[in-house]
Amino acid sequence: PAQQGQGASLNKIMIRWKAEDENPASRSVSLAYSTTPNGPWTTIRDWDKDTGSYLWVVAGNVGPQLFVAVSARDAAGNVRRVVTSKPILVDLKKPSAKIVGVKSSAKGSRR
Predict the structure, then answer these.
(1) How far apart are CA 4 and CA 34, in angstroms?
(2) What pTM was estimated for this model as a whole?
(3) Which residues contact 13 (CB under 8 A, 6 or more apart)?
(4) CA–CA distance, 74 with 78 (Å, rounded to integer)
(5) Which of 60, 73, 77, 111 has CA 20 to 30 A from 27's CA?
């Protein structure tokens, strides 16, 4: 699963996975994202050690929703890719607000 941060971590998504193989490659996991479940895919993290999680600092140019793919490979070169079943909603914009007016009522005034 993937989870977007909040507050100061708004532009960060924690990606977690579990890959198992008796003979994993030394650099056995890669991560990618796409706006559709079938790609095209953009690399988040190229083949690296299997750490089970990765904190992705998301650039502002990704769409409002995306799919994440985790690929795992073994020492023989066999690869298995798993894609999130539903899109991850990405909201990188902080809400804004402004005061449009303040009105006080005098003490003792009647309505």
Answers:
(1) 16
(2) 0.74
(3) 2, 3, 4, 5, 55, 56, 58, 68, 88, 90
(4) 6
(5) 60
